[in-house]
Structure prediction request, 165 residues.
Amino acid sequence: MSKAALVMGSDSDFDALVPCIKTLKKFGVEVDVRVISAHRSPELAHEFAEKAEENGYGVIIAAAGKAAHLAGVLAAFTTLPVIGIPVKSSLMDGLDSLLSVVQMPSGIPVATVAVNGAENAAILAAQIFASTDPSVKAKLKEHKQAMRAAIIEKDKMIAERAREI
Ligand code: RP5
Prediction:
């Protein structure tokens, strides 16, 4: 079974990450959820990233806010794909987190989703697994079909509302 790690910098990030956990489970991706801080427990971040592949993870999703260095630090110690979720912070609406996650130096990429983009992080992880896991791929196709059907419904509904004006 495809297995991802979702690592957050603090337990205070958890609520923003619930959609990521739900979405990974929806696509049949096993997920281990951890709190590891790049700043408060840096040696554990190092150890986690170095052992992630032998521990069976295919993707690491790393979420942090403010000076959000977690995803970049984990990416420094692994060749696994790392997806970064900038968590919205109280002072700058998450712009601080976004820039901290996305502005990686050449050679160490972090695939960064939007501020609080927890669902998209899970979908991107599922898409990475889908190249080798047909059951994840089938669920992704169903998801796209469902979105398409929902948009067609909304199109009809909006046309109806516009006629009534
Ligand atoms: C970051 O600092 C965490 O990812 C969190 O978003 C932020 C604040 O952490 P706490 O002070 O709430 O633990 O490292």
